[in-house]
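Fig. S4 source data, part A: sequence.
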Amino acid sequence: MSNPRNTTHDWQRLLGKAGDLQPLSRHLLRVRFGGGRAHRLRVTDAGDHWLLTGVILKNTRMMPVETPFRDHPALAAAQRNRRLILCGISVDDSGCLTGSCRVPKAGLCVSEFQLYVRHLAAECDRLEHLFTGEDRE
């Protein structure tokens, strides 16, 4: 286990030297994909685990009219969750659609942390593109 004073930044150490993973601040990182797309994730120290969160849509009411599940974003999240293993999708009371996952710290290695980060960022980016056709990060 690491020194408690350094736990806030331990997640940055877990990024290793991966060129596609870039720390932006104490709590944010960017994952870059091929084709110029990227997605930002928030990293929160939750004691025995890291909570990774990515915004898919800040306001689901702003989705284009032709978007699947536009009137029922919670249904879209529930349907997507059936296919996901490492992360989940949810809609909060303000209509923000997010993806998140909990990464246990016990025994965590660089490659496992990076797997969670890349998987969550890819799912969030995929849904963002599906719902908006854009790369808003």
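Fig. S4 source data, part B ends here. The radius of gyration is 15 Å.
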